[in-house]
Amino acid sequence: MSTRIKHEKLQAFVDEAAAMCGPDEVYVCDGSTGEYDRLMALMLESGSATPLKKRPNSVLFRSDPSDVARVEDRTYISTPDRADAGPTNNWVAPDELKATMKGLYRGCMKGRTMYVIPFSMGPIGSPIAKIGIEITDSPYVVCNMHIMTRVGTRVLEALGEDGEFIPCLHSIGAPLEPGQKDAAWPCAPIEKKYISHFPDENLIWSYGSGYGGNALLGKKCLALRIASAMARKEGWMAEHMLILRLTSPGGKQYHIAAAFPSACGKTNLAMLQCTVEGWKCETVGDDIAWMKIGPDGRLYAINPEAGFFGVAPGTSYDSNPMAMDTLHENIIFTNCALTDDGDIWWEGFDGPVPAHAIDWKGRDWTPGSTEVAAHPNARFTAPARQCPCICTDWEKPEGVPIDIFVFGGRRAGVVPLVNEAFSWDHGVFLGATASSETTAANIGSVGDLRRDPFAMKPFCGYNMADYFQHWLDMGDRLGDKAPRIFYVNWFRKSAAGKFLWPGFGENSRVLKWMCERIDGRAGARKTAIGLLPEEGALDLEGLDVPGENMKEILAVDTAAWKAEIPSLEKHFAQFGDRLPPRMKAQLEGLAKRLG
User: Fold this and answer.
1) Distance CA 519, CA 513 (A)
2) What tens digit of pLDDT does each residue of 64-81 get?
3) Angle value at C-alpha 116, between 110 and 119, nearest 5 degrees
């Protein structure tokens, strides 16, 4: 044991896990650079990691082809009463699930080291932060957690001898017999993968996957699924939201929290480069926001993470220059292609396509191949501090005050570029009915329309109808200090299938209108679905978008919206009598306004 544990409950958790999983040794992580370097050296030596000559202190991993994304159908919310998990979650009774998983855990770390990772979600000591302890047999997980969270001795010191922590147990599920050669990416077959959450106990058990959100348990498992359930009990919010700061030419700061499903431009928006003269954008967080009501009655948010776990394909200097400038050194790449000169590559990367590369499965790849070089869900793990546009206050313990909430999704039609909610309840309705066309970040058919309330469908740790009610309750508590709510769709297409809006940095024009709306300086016209910019209200100076395109992306097609009503009714019907009456009233109000 490398570090002595003074916390009795923590020691009991470690002892119990070691007795069940049977590792060869137990190591408590100290969070040091030396520790990271030692573990990375082990993985380089074994061949599971490939060094990148072009990027200092950066490596490439290739996962097993069965272990490339979150496995939503193997992800469980386990509550004593099935109704508390709700219709959007997979449910298994706690006793049954634990019995199954204990059987899998028995001896699962044989031949391996059991790593104990003390980690803080949020700046250590922040009143909004929480401490977790992840036990894992994966050095890949340890190194990623080093980047994604605050890890080590300082966390144990903050925990003290009796502090609260969230226990997180993870195993790749691949014990080693003496002399057995390890796989480059050890994991269990898909039918033995379990990502299990027990919200009543604030407990996470994960087995069989070494990939991102299934294995880095601080991320979606703790920061959203368990934290959302904790937040409801404790009166705060844990949301799948980026946080950004916009500063006007006059120096006024606005803070925006925005929720988008995976691969809908969320990271691009978090690292936005304003194209409107005099306006500046800074990143507070790219994925998750934890928010509590402050002493002044406003909502304050922290980014609980310390790094970015971003989708690589499509990231380029055209789409996200700030992300690209973050990736020069100290990065873990997963499932990208490897170029002959020792760099990474993916579809959408800047510059010429390489004449030859090694693809994400370790095979030769040349342009024109029938398969992609990088997996569509290939990732980079990057320290947030390296981002050139990281906000100076990104680690402010008390957080930043939120002025605006934005919801959005990827829709080719129907949904306009932007609309503002009439009220808090209407804004909750917009979030509750958010929809997007599916992407590679979730396993399933690409392009299907999926209702993804608040971009939280895969991440809400309890019944989503109760989650809608929690949003309504928070609005009631915030009163006139509640953030204003907007809905955006950057992805509207013409009948010819061409994007009508340039997106990327130009999205700052839409955000500027939102800021001016809360200051009472920009006009809006009332429509059946919300408040849309009136003619001339959006700053289009220097932007070459045809007038007919602007007309189309700011139009409300009543017939198309009427056709959405049955889909919305079906979506709400799944929640039965648990659906808040105020949500039902919003749907009825929309139908009435559409006539």
Assistant:
1) 10
2) 999 999 899 999 999 999
3) 150
Phi, psi of 551 (to 5 degrees): -60, -40
Q: Are strands 253-259 and 404-408 parallel, antiparallel or unpaired?
A: parallel
- Name which of 164, 193, 176, 155 is nearest 76 in CA terms: 193
CB atoms within 10 A of CB 148: 28
pLDDT 10s digits, 3-27: 568 899 999 999 999 999 999 999 9
Amino acid at the residue 50: T
Q: Which amino acid is at 405?
A: F
The catalytic position among 21, 187, 221, 264 is 264
Q: What are the structure tokens assigned to 428, written together? A: 């909750």
Torsion of CA 354, 357, 359, 362, to 10 degrees: -170
Handedness of CA 513, 518, 519, 525 (dihedral sign): positive
Beta strand 379-383 with 307-311 is antiparallel
SS3 10: helix
Residue with tokens 């959007």: 88
Asked if 265 and 490 touch (Cβ cutoff 8 Å), the reply is yes
Distance CA 46, CA 113 (A): 15
pTM of the model: 0.96
**Sequence-ordered list of residues with C-beta below 8 angstroms from that of 13, at least 6 positions apart, any chain:** 133, 135, 167
Q: Around 579, how many Cα atoms within 13 Å sit in the side-chain half-sphere?
A: 22
As beta bridge partners, residue 358 has 338, 364
Write out pLDDT tens, residues 565-593. 999 999 999 999 999 999 999 999 999 99
Instruction: State the Cα–Cα distance between residues 454 and 432, nearest whole angstrom.
Output: 6
Q: Which amino acid is at 408?
A: G
R_g of the chain, CA atoms, integer Å = 24
Query: Could you tell me if 404 and 482 are in contact, meaning their C-beta atoms sit under 8 angstroms apart?
Result: no
C-beta of residue 538 within 8 angstroms of C-beta of residue 513: yes
Distance, in Å, from the CA atom of 144 to the CA atom of 138, rounded to the nearest integer, reads 10
Q: Is 264 marked active-site?
A: yes
Q: What are phi and psi of 469, to 5 degrees?
A: -65, -35
* Identity of residue 374: A
Count CA atoms within 13 Å of residue 223 on its CB side.
28
Round to whole Å and give the CA distance between 368 and 348: 15
CA distances from 575 to 84, 447, 563, 570, 581 (A): 11, 25, 21, 9, 11
472, amino acid identity: L
Q: List pLDDT tens digits, range 71-116.
A: 999 999 999 999 999 999 999 999 999 999 999 999 999 999 999 9
Does an H or E element contain 467, and which?
helix 464-478
Q: pLDDT class for 438, splitting at 50, 70, 90?
A: low
Output the CA angle 150-151-154, nearest 5 degrees: 90
CA distance 233 to 258: 23
Q: What is the pLDDT of residue 263?
A: 67
**Tokens standing for residue 382:** 């990057």
Q: What is the mean pLDDT of the chain?
A: 96
- How many CA atoms lie less than 13 Å away from 89 in the CB half-sphere? 29
